[in-house]
Amino acid sequence: VLHKRVEEREEQMKMDYPELVSKLALLLGAGMTVQNAWQRIVSDYASKKPTEAAKRYAYEEMLLTANEMRNGVYQSEALEGFGRRCRLPCYNKLATLLIQNLRSGSNNLSCLLQEEAKEAFEERKHLARRQGEKAGTKLLLPMMLLLIMVMVMIIVPAFLSHIG
């Protein structure tokens, strides 16, 4: 049960990643700092959260990271913790990009994030395709059973009328 919940969490986080990165790239491209963009995304999520029944794990981790930053944890440490807690390579990469930007002050962070968002959307398409194939495979057995039932419903009366 726990293993399945962890898998569901990871799958949800993978699905949320492209949207999260594109929001971050958009806000940073508009001239916001990393911390302000982070806070903005978190506050948007927090304002919508009471209406949404299911929580989004990636945004919950972002909320935790934002609270850490507000409580005095260094931004680089908080982002590093975010990457570790998410336990997915894509989130580690995002955290690393943001930490490198903080340390070196690169001007092309917005471009890097846009490129990352494109790659993430492609990965999301592949993930959706795999989920569709998995669902199709799960439906194969019930469809075969229905086919057999229909064939029996057609063949039995024909056979009985031929005998009688």
Give an overview in words:
The chain is mainly α and 164 residues long. The chain has helices at residues 2-29, 34-48, 57-70, 75-86, 89-104, 109-163. The longest helix has 55 residues, at 109-163. The mean pLDDT is 90.
Q: Count the DSSP helices.
A: 6
Tally of DSSP β-strands: 0
Shape: elongated
Q: Report the radius of gyration as a whole number of Å.
A: 24 Å
What is the average of the pLDDT values?
Answer: 90
Class based on secondary structure composition and strand pairing: mainly alpha
| Termini separation | 55 Å
Biggest β-sheet strands, sense, barrel: none
User: What fraction of the residues are assigned to beta strands by DSSP?
Assistant: under 5%
